């Protein structure tokens, strides 16, 4: 199933916490020649604002994921992102790749996070 069809299905799920698989881009950190350091992903635009992910890689392992840019200027954005972003960060640290689960009820956040994450991991030499 392609990512857009998947996200359409996710959009039908009400509430945060329901998950669906996102399209895998990488298999694992161990499968690539990895650069150590902090890598900033491209800014992913949504209708609600920009998202950007930073990833730190040390000794071939993703050790830190931050989201320095994300929509948080209104109560709805704050509510969705305060729940969805920690879940997405945890997922990346758990699976050590971009093969993460999208968050139902946060499809725009999930898509933008994923897009920027793939960019950051690519810069780290993870393809």
| Helix share, percent | 25-40%
Q: Mind summarizing the main beta sheet?
A: 4 strands, antiparallel
Write down the domain tally. 1
Tell me the fraction of residues in β-strands, as a range: 25-35%
Give the terminus-to-terminus CA distance.
21 Å
**CATH hierarchy, class:** Alpha Beta
Q: Which class best fits the helix and strand makeup?
A: alpha+beta
What is the mean predicted local confidence, pLDDT?
82
Radius of gyration: 14 Å
Low-pLDDT residue intervals, each spanning 5 or more residues: 1-32
Number of strands: 6
Overall CATH architecture: Alpha-Beta Complex
Helix count equals 3
Tell me the quaternary state: single chain
Shape: elongated
CATH topology-level fold name: Sufe protein. Chain: A
Order of helices and strands: HEEEEEHEH
Task: Please describe the topology of this protein.
Layout: H1 3-11, E1 19-21, E2 37-40, E3 44-46, E4 49-58, E5 61-69, H2 75-95, E6 101-103, H3 107-123
Antiparallel strand pairs: 1-6, 2-4, 3-4, 4-5
Question: Can you tell me about this structure?
Answer:
The structure is a single chain. With 127 residues, the protein is α+β, with helices and mostly antiparallel strands. It has one domain (3-123): Sufe protein. Chain: A (Alpha-Beta Complex). 37% of the residues lie in helices and 25% in strands. It has 3 helices and 6 strands. The protein has helices spanning 3-11, 75-95, 107-123; strands at residues 19-21, 37-40, 44-46, 49-58, 61-69, 101-103. Strands 2, 3, 4 and 5 form a 4-stranded antiparallel sheet that branches. A two-stranded antiparallel ribbon has the order 1-6. The chain is elongated, with a radius of gyration of 14 Å. It starts with a helix and ends with a helix. The model is unreliable at 1-32 (pLDDT under 50).
